[in-house]
Amino acid sequence: MCLALAACSPPSLLSSVNGLVPGDNGARRVAEGIVFAPAQGLKLDVWSPRPSARKLPVVVFLYGGGWVDGSRGGYAFAGSGYAGQGFVTVVPDYRLVPAVRFPAFLEDGARAVKWTRDNIARYGGDPDRIALAGHSAGAYNGAMLALDGHYLREAGVPAGTIKAAALLSGPYDFLPFTEQRGRDALGAWPRPAETQPINFVTRSAPPMLLATGSDDRIVNPRNSQALAGKLEQAGVPVELKIYPSKSHVDLAKSLSRPFRTTTPALADSAAFLHRTMGR
After folding, report:
1. CA 94 to CA 160: how far, in whole Å?
2. Is 73 helix (H, G, I), strand (E, B) or coil?
3. DSSP code of residue 176
4. Residue 220 lies in a domain
5. What are phi and psi of 54, to 5 degrees?
6. Taking every annotated instance into account, which residue ranges of this chain make up the domain BD-FAE-like (predicted)?
7. Is 3 domain-assigned?
8. Could you report how far apart the first and last alpha carbons of the chain are, in Å?
């Protein structure tokens, strides 16, 4: 019954059922509740593969939830999933609507990248091989951090720190705001064009994988197609994956062990990041 409910339940249930199925190659949470932004009261978790004699590539996973919901604990299944694919994985919290509006959640993401750059070596990660990953609103956050360099720069992150991004089911080109969550999170910003990832594509953008489901009714697949086209025009390496007959929830669900066969999103994004950053 629990597995059946997971198809329409919140991420925390996916994390709960994740533990019912063995796997992820010995991945484990090696740090929990580390404060990375004291002034904002924000914490993160670190997930690690089996111990290695060499520094491993790093993924900072940004969760979704429409900028109004989500937590690092609820997305333990994503931390475990990417760690099982050979990445030291950081899952940070960020402030949510209505407590904040754009661009506060992007500033929080930049703070998480700063902490990762400064501290991940002590957990076996390579600070010179950091990638972003995320789903839905988290994919939006990842795209903005990867494309609009001023957020990372203002957080003290060196240029070129983000080597790649693997983004799932994200909104990247969605003006005008026709959906309530978008209006609540972004609609008050006086220059709407500055909220759109697609407007910040340059030839210096990191390689990106953009994945979506053809039946996504929450974030139209056109968003991924449009951003992929803009990146390609700029000469940036990009891979577009559109999974037939798959929904918005399907891509997030498939990061959890019991549902890995739903889509190959985890395997595809991991393979892309390994090709881009090296194992």
Report:
1. 23
2. coil
3. S
4. yes
5. -120, 160
6. 44-231
7. no
8. 38
156-175 pLDDT tens trace: 999 999 999 999 999 999 99
Strand partners, 35: 43
pLDDT in tens, 93-130: 999 999 999 999 999 999 999 999 999 999 999 999 99
Domain count of the fold of the chain = 1
By the 10 Å C-beta count (0-12 exposed, 13-18 middle, 19+ buried), 261 is classed as: exposed
CATH number of the domain enclosing 179: 3.40.50.1820
Residue type, 166: A
Is residue 2, in this structure, part of any structural domain at all? no
Domain that holds residue 22: 9-277
Q: Give the pairing of strands 162-168 and 125-135.
A: parallel
What is the pTM for the complete model shown?
0.94
Query: Rounded to an integer, what distance in angstroms lies between the CA atom of residue 68 and that of residue 274?
Result: 32
Whether 223 is in a domain gets the answer yes
* CA of residue 124 relative to chain centroid, distance: 20
What's the confidence (pLDDT) of residue 2?
A: 32
> What's the pLDDT tens digit per position in 14-52?
767 676 566 788 899 999 999 999 999 999 999 999 888
**CA angle, 248 as apex, 22 and 26 as ends, to 5°?**
20
Beta bridge partners of 135: 168
**Residues 213, 268: Cα–Cα separation, whole Å:** 13
Residue 30 in tokens? 């090696």
Rounded CA-CA distance 54/278 in Å is 12
pLDDT for 4 equals 33
Q: How far is CA 151 from CA 92, 106, 129, 163, 271, in A?
A: 16, 7, 19, 16, 27
pLDDT at 52: 83
Question: What mean pLDDT do residues 219-246 have?
Answer: 98
